[in-house]
C-alpha cells in the first residue's frame, strides 16, 4: 500500500490513489462473486460421488462466496 501513495504530496492525492486502486478490487470481487454464484447454481451430485465429497464441494463454493461478500443462508 505504501508504495502506491509514497509519491503523493498531499493527503488528497494519497486518498485519490487509494480510491482508484480499491475500485478495481471491488469490480474484481463482483465478477468473482458472479462466477461463484453460477458455479453454486450448477452444483449437482454425480452418482459416483459420495455425499461427503458433494458437501465438501458445496462448502468450498459457499465459503468463497462469503469471502467475496455474499450473505449465504443455511
Structure description:
The chain is an all-alpha fold and 74 residues long. It has one domain (11-67). Helix content is 70%, strand content 0%. It is built from 3 helices and no strands. α2 (11-41) packs antiparallel against α3. The radius of gyration is 19 Å and the shape is rod-shaped. The two termini are 36 Å apart. 3% of the residues are buried. The mean pLDDT is 85.
Radius of gyration: 19 Å
Helix run count: 3
Overall morphology: rod-shaped
Helix content: over 70%
Largest sheet descriptor? none
Structural class designation: mainly alpha
Count of domains: 1
Task: Please state roughly what percent of the residues sit in beta strands, choosing from under 5%, 5-15%, 15-25%, 25-35%, 35-45% or over 45%.
Answer: under 5%
- Cα end-to-end separation: 36 Å
Give, in order, the helices and strands. Answer: HHH
The chain-level mean pLDDT equals: 85
| Model regions low in confidence, pLDDT < 50 over at least 5 residues | none
Please provide the count of β strands.
Answer: 0
Offer a few descriptive terms.
single chain, mainly alpha, 3 helices, 70% helix, 0% strand, rod-shaped
Write a compact overview of the structure shown.
By secondary structure, the protein is an all-alpha fold.
Amino acid at each position: 500500500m505504501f508504495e502506491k501513495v509514497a509519491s503523493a504530496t498531499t493527503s488528497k492525492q494519497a486518498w485519490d490513489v487509494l480510491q482508484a486502486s480499491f475500485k478495481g478490487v471491488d469490480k474484481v470481487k463482483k465478477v468473482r462473486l458472479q462466477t461463484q454464484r453460477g458455479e453454486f447454481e450448477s452444483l449437482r451430485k454425480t452418482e459416483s460421488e459420495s455425499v461427503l465429497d458433494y458437501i465438501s464441494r458445496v462448502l468450498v463454493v459457499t465459503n468463497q462466496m462469503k469471502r467475496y461478500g455474499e450473505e449465504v443462508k443455511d
